[in-house]
Amino acid sequence: MKIEIVKSGINGEGIGYADKKPVFIRECLEGELVDASITEKNKTYSTAKLERVIRKSKHRLVPKCKEYKQCKSCSCMIADYTMQKRMKEELLRQSLIKYAAIDPNVIEPIIESENQFYYRNSCKV
After folding, report:
1. Less Cβ crowding at N or C end of the chain, within 10 Å?
2. Who contacts 27 (Cβ-Cβ below 8 Å, separation ≥6)?
3. pTM of the entire predicted model
4. Which residues, at least 6 apart from 1, have a Cβ–Cβ distance to it below 8 Å?
5. How far apart (Å, rounded) are the C-alpha atoms in residues 75 and 77?
6. CB atoms < 10 A from the CB of 85, how many?
């Protein structure tokens, strides 16, 4: 099924809508149109597997890390640095508004790093 990706989720996945429910799809960016297959349906959301990207984001790039698909730690690596910063800033903004009732106007822009690679850490059980 075709799904328009309208935003990013907390794990860097793309979120679109089907049957008025959010659909979470790994390896998708906001603004993309994708062909995806539903893999799991719940009452309030679904997950899907990306089959192909029909319309790519101008921010999409090939991940620099050869372990990207197996590791799954750097979910934003399919986006250029500008988009990664925007995704992370929006996630922070939404989290602070939702969970801490903080005024979003006090949130300052992310400070760019000179080192865009080789700094990531992840520990998953």
Report:
1. C
2. 13, 14, 50, 78
3. 0.82
4. 18, 35, 36, 37, 38, 48
5. 6
6. 18
What's the token pair of residue 124? 């998953």
Q: What is the pLDDT of residues 58-112, one digit of tens each?
A: 999 988 777 677 766 677 888 998 998 888 888 888 888 888 988 888 888 888 8
User: What is the number of alpha carbons within 13 Å of residue 106 lying toward its C-beta?
Assistant: 6
In this structure, what token pair is assigned to residue 121? 């850490």
How many other C-beta atoms can be found within 10 angstroms of the C-beta atom of residue 63?
A: 15
- Write down the number of H helices and E strands in the chain: 2, 6
Strands 14-18 and 7-8, sheet pairing? antiparallel
Q: Rounded to whole angstroms, how far apart are CA atoms 56 and 74?
A: 19
Residue 63 has φ and ψ, to the nearest 5°, of -55, 135
**What residues have CB less than 8 Å from 46, skipping those under 6 apart?**
18, 21, 22, 23, 24, 38, 39, 40
Six-digit token pair at 125? 């059980």
